[in-house]
Amino acid sequence: MPKKTIYWLCGVVVLLALGFYGYSKWTEAREKVSLWTLVPDNAVFVVETNNAPRFLDHLQQTDLWTTVSQMPFVLRLDDQLAQLDSISTGRSQIRNFLTNKNVLVSMHVMGRTEYDLVYYVPVSTVAQHRYIRTLVENMSKSGLYRQEIREYQGFQITDIIHQNDNDNLSYFSYHNNLVISPSPVLVEEIIRKINRGQLESPAKDYKNTNYLSQPDVYANVFINYQHVPDLLGVFLKKDLLADVNLLSSLCRNSMLQLKLDNNRLFMNGFSRPETVEGSLYSRIQGHEAKKFNLREVLPERAAIVLHLGLNQMSTLRKEPGTPEGSFLDSLSGSFAGELGLCYLEAYDTKTSPEKILFAQTSNAGMTQQMLNRLQPGQTAGTVEKHGQHTIRLLTAKELPQQLFGDMFKGFEQTYYTTLQNYILFTDDVATMRALLTEVEEGKVWSKSAAMEPLLNESQQTDNIGLFINTSHAWNLLLRSMSPEQQVSLLRNSSIIKKFNYFSLQFGAAENQYYTSFLLRHQEESRVKTVLADQGIRREETFDFNSRLISTPFLTKFVVDNSNEIVVQDSALVLYGVGADRGRRNWSDTLNSRIMGPVLQLPYGQDKRLKYFFATSNSLHCIDKSGKEEENFPFILGDSLRLQRLTVFDYDKTGDYRLAADDNLGNLFILDMQGNLQSGWNPMRLDGRLAAPPQHVKVNGRNVVLVTLENGFIYAFGTQGEPYPGFPINLNASLRSGLFPKLGISFRRSLFTTVTQGGEVITFDLTGEVTRREQLLRPDRRSTFKLVPEEGGKSFIIARSDPGRVALFGQDGKLLLDRRFVTSSAKEVQYFHFGGDRKLYVIWETGPRKAYLFDVQAQPLGDDPINTSYPVTVRYNEVQNQYTVFSTYNKLLQKTVVQGR
After folding, report:
1. So where does this one cross the membrane (predicted)?
2. What pLDDT digit, counting tens, does each position of 658-677 carry?
3. In sequence order, what are the beta bridge partners of 175?
4. Which CATH class is domain 686-773?
């Protein structure tokens, strides 16, 4: 055969081989690979969207966007995209590139303190390949980035590094799909997975589930609960991770649909149970979801609520009592239905939060009898009455943990009572008293306008539910965060707090759990239509014939339960005025000026609200028509000059005691028939009271505390008998009352006050001073006062200097420092409506002007409010608005203040 023919044949063979190799590579590249199979098994979350620009367009039209757009991650991403747009051929290119494209994003924990993301992007056309190639080339030419190419296990990895901050972005291509991540470690892990031939989706349980075909769904969201504890471990302190691990063991994974509304993001779908031995699912398998009736007794100030719906609570116990059929087994088995652990709002990060455990029982009487068997007999301080309820102390340590498992630890001692068909457990009797009072007053979730949307949109039944009120839970979140994450949380506090409600629920549905996540954002768009701008707008004024001579007092009109304002004019007529429409509800002509506050309490045969107040020498009680109740008024003496009326209800039974103090230091206490009580007819003290007398109950004993302006503090029993250790002399002048922090004994019950000279003093009920701390006093004329908020849950300290006022928190942190033109006396008011909804009011007595400041010490409105007396404030949580009532000359003014 001629050599020429041989050469031709060899050439044809080479060409065929090259063609076959090229064809096989082309075929391999065009072979479609599910992006899900590239995701490593340790992904915590995987999000799949088929049109990211459409999602972004919708997001930008919602209330969420204003907050989301300020997140550091979003700001960095936006900056990076802007740079890429400038490098490429225009912003529309990236948008067009992502339109109608299925893209995946997965999140992975990289260690004890880090996590990172991987992006999976298909590149399906020649134009898209050209766009990516041109973009990468232009990035290298721009001088902002440098490009490094390396081989790893047969794949070419491209690392793009920013020249200024060394931020890294690594990517490689596989079957016309780009895998991109800031973490080279994750990119290499995916290559190793490919080379092992283990291309299996972590979401293989949901291979036939795809919510993206629905028009109002923007993403599929896969959650791997086996790795959720690893992610939360990045943020939380180690002592919380045991509870996280147990709760995460209910389900193995979830596939959820993501939807977006104006001010809420919610995900719904199904979860597969975790069937391994010892999981939470193994304990509650087969239990039906229970209706969330607990909303009827949860207090408005609840911060975090863990709700469980179970057929029987005893299944939660990790190690049931031995021997089988022990007493604790029987007691635990008597609880069935709902179990709720509620943490209340904490006012600082140093104090352990108050907590309440609600446990439903089918037979409250029988369960109560069994509980009483744990502590037979009654000793002083173990039983007390609170209205219709009996509160008992059980000294069995960690009783809730023994009954319901390790999630319910932290009860050094246990107080319990019965409320409806729930047994309530607390570790602090003051918490129990406050809760019972709030439920009685209707301050519960089911009656809260702010909670209504969350409750309506969440599942009505569940087996496991977690509810978080972000503003109320803020200090709890800070307390639970690792020190490394606290700084970041504080830095982003204004953003996080905008997302004010969160819920997560699992409800049994055949062999899986219906799952619902709901994240609500503070509603703003509708509010802004009410007030055009943030600040103050005088909405309404109500004219009177005579000058008003009192602070406006906020009350309720009994006839229709509407908001009402009580004021008095110079003709000595007391009026009840509708707060919303300004109508005159009632009036009462008095003989003298009212002294101190107008109080409203249920009284009389009808048990409806009545108005209680003092004049210069008399105590009054009038009904809804302004008529005196039977036997009233009580006249204490023609020559007296009373300062105010204080009402005590020792056992919360409505059997009131009326306490009145005068300008000479005499303290009278009467019953509701006008009889002066033994020891109080009157109690003659050696100085004028610096604040209203205070009643507390500790270890079953009633204590009346009296603070005098001369620095003496007294503690009396109900018959006027002094307690041992009292009086104590602080050796300083006082103009402040006491802030109580009650404990289980007299020695563990602490009271704080501040002297006029700025010394913060804490003492206990044995009369021992436990702490003295001098605050900075920049001027010898500086004076200090402790200012509690109306609910008595927190306080601030006000320092008045000539022409200047400074406010300090309980921890001594400076909250506000403001200079004024005049040196006239200033009066400070402090209103706290939960979370960051705080309002500081500084009233100048000379110019008769009130200045309003928010929690950031920023003034609300350009101009102060004209007012002759301190103001009264009402808060609307739904619209985030403060309504300020003030009196000025002949006007009752209603001013609306929009919160930020």
Report:
1. 6-23
2. 999 999 999 999 999 999 99
3. none
4. mainly beta
